[in-house]
Amino acid sequence: MDQSKLLAFINWLIDGARSADEPSRTLYEACVRLVELGIPLWRVGIFVRTLHPEIYGRSFVWRSGGEVEVGSVDYGFQDSRTYRDSPISVVAQEGIAFRANPQAPEAERYPILMDLRAEGVTDYLALPLAFLDRQVHVSSWTTQAPGGFTDAQVEAIRSLIPALSRYTEIVTLQRTASMLLDTYVGNSAGERILGGQIRRGHTDTMHAAIWLSDLRGFTPLSDRLPAENVVEILNHYFDCQVDPIREQGGEVLKFMGDGLLAVFPIPEQGGDPAEVCGRVLTAARASRARVDALEYAVDGTGERFRFGVALHVGRLLYGNIGGGNRLDFTCIGPAVNLAARLEKMAARLKRTVVASEAFAGTCKESWTDLGEFPIAGFSTGQRVFGLREEAG
Predict the structure, then answer these.
(1) What pTM did the predictor assign?
(2) Cα–Cα distance between 21 and 19 in angstroms, integer?
(3) Which of these, 62, 56, 129, lies nearest to 91 by C-alpha position?
(4) Guanylate cyclase domain location, by residue (predicted)?
């Protein structure tokens, strides 16, 4: 094996694999280069734990002659028999290398090795990818070459593991930061924060449709139920809204007790306010149907729920607000204030969906003018509109 070419490959990894624009492409190029160096790879896999509220880990698998397949496993996988009976669990838990011949009788205790035996694999090598925080992730390497990997080929694979670990760790940290920001502040805000908009006072204006909702009767409900039940109810309740909001292009900015604030940005160039507001209303109707169908068993009976949502459209200020080094990426302004006041009007008017005059005028629907009402903080009364389908 040409050691100078192997060193050049390792330096390519250390330099960030700049010819590849994403991790799956990096794995593809790496495997192709290693085959060209004389390592007869058949299948290579990388399994990395994630810090994600729903996904336990991600896998990247390359096969000779194919592209890289990217997959994920949910929480609970680590407790499954599939994981416990795999070499990956041995490597991840003990931080040691694992090598076996799938054609040997002793390989029969591992189902994955039986699958590889059927593919004609003659050698399986799993190596730990150790991160600086002491977490251990896993790489696996297989070949169909008669007799398996040679000692020189195994040594070559082992020599590139430190560089592969550092590359994988950097990519994982970047992805983790992005996922956490997306989870806790929303996608658009996360992109801005990662882009460097982190100082207090960094703000922009945005033209957007605004969604502000809350759960009816939440206070008495939380008083009479154990806290863990209240949390479970809130999670189910928010599920009824978050998916429809995101499906229609909205972004959830924050949860405030039983309240939810979301925005649907209207592009400054070529944006169609009517189209965006139409999607907002679609999300509102879908959320209403889901909340109506939500039932939770309390004291042997089925508890049903109602919520209210106020819709408005206008310009808002969007950015970092807070004190010292504790900031919140949020939106403020008269438009947000009006949405908050209208949301309170929804309960008073016994409506699920209410809209401002600006929203109703933009989204041409079957609206009913519910009248003009004095709104705290506004010098003039504001007209409130409700969906005609909710009348009576």
Answers:
(1) 0.72
(2) 7
(3) 129
(4) 209-343
